[in-house]
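Supplementary Text 2. Reproducibility record for the structural model of the 141-residue chain.

All settings were left at their defaults, and a single model was retained for analysis rather than an ensemble. We include the record here because the model underlies the residue-level annotations in Supplementary Table 4.
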Amino acid sequence: MNDMDDPSAPGSVAPKRLTREERTIVAMVALYCRDQHGAEVRRDADGACAECTELLAYARLRLVRCRYGADKPTCAKCPMHCYKPAMRERVREVMRYSGPRMLKSHPVLALAHLVDGRRGGAVDAAGPAAGSAADREPPAG
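Retained model, structure tokens:
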């Protein structure tokens, strides 16, 4: 992955919404990690331990490769579930814990995410014509 593929890279051309989504997942993972894995665990610059850093890297990759781009719905409303089942469950656990707490620690990101989730922008299940099989996660197994 080069810097132009990474929405967190300096000089990235990622749309504002995708950049905000990336900031939201970073904040959620950091909040979860701090509260669930304890203060004594070594953390990276994003505030995540090694286990959470792996999850965060995977979430960033899925965001970068999202076939819907800036028009993507929130993952919960997306017709194309691109996460591997195990990773999807880990992200759901993080979101279940961090979601309600985000209103206190990161209210702007939390409210923006809620608004994004309420948008009526229906997405075609087949996705945009530009999407390809390479954008999707290979079948587990």
